[in-house]
Amino acid sequence: MTNGRTNPPTLEEVAAFAGVGRGTVSRVINKAPGVKAATRLAVERAITQLGYVPNHAARALAGSRTDAVALVITETERRFFAEPFFSEIVHAVGAGLAETEIQLLLTLVRTQKERQRFVQYARAGRVDGVLMVSVHGDDPLPDMLAELELPTVLSGRRSGDESVSYVDSDNVGGARSAVRHLVDTGRRAIATVTGPPDMYVAQCRLRGYQEEIRKAFGEVEPSWIARGDFTEESGRRATARLLELHPELDAVFAASDIMAAGALHTLRAAGRRVPEDVAVVGFDDSPLAQHTDPQLTTVRQPVEEMGRAMARVLLEDIENPSAAWRHVILRTKLVRRASA
User: Where is the HTH lacI-type domain (predicted)?
Assistant: First the structure.
């Protein structure tokens, strides 16, 4: 470079220079499809003008395989230990790796400092690949790992145009089936409790709700949508708000089983019978769904299959790192129980 700087340009600087996100830069560098020609040209020009050199040698510096992969959870300890989904996915990934000699390392990455520390750990070649669970929309870690050319597979995805390999469920279709069931059983005042708005999984489940409500009733009134964060307490608070706004409420679709359990608690405290007065449907079909009172009607996402698929895709990426990223979407299924 000619500006007198000694540090090499970073991926973030290339992205800023080209006016795009760092994920787009990663897709251009890795020759992934789906990037507009003009955008690709702008990124290539930025790379040339800044003198950016992709870190193609990062993996080679590590030498031979470590026979270890990291499972990264980007949530707090409280959520990790409280929500059945996380223990199920850890078990499923472990089962997917059981026939190999690969060691599974579990780590929580919740802050920028922890993210940087993990990147340095990965850059040192201490793992052959990374599995990530519960990724939020603004999380740069998948792109940082892609820059290192480290095989990475996400559980879920950050957006509809995710480039990194992922395994996901049909969240839109699952939500639609839940709301369709409520409509078909005569419910007419149907609310929803959503997950965090910065998570694509929550956006998809909300979209499924909205699509089916529009199909049945012609419009979606925003006051019937209450924000949660995939915790039981948020399910309680959101349902309480919905009851205040809409005493005529006769059904709740919660975007997770644990929020549905919170909804059941609030409804019971308000003297509403489930399902006679208000029907409740969750999402996940976690073990919790069979232990609520009444047992929870819910949308099953195949967590066991998801975990095994994540392990399988990661192993394939490790064996053939130059192959195209893999995108896998698994089917969901409505499980009918007593709550609806």
Answer: 9-63
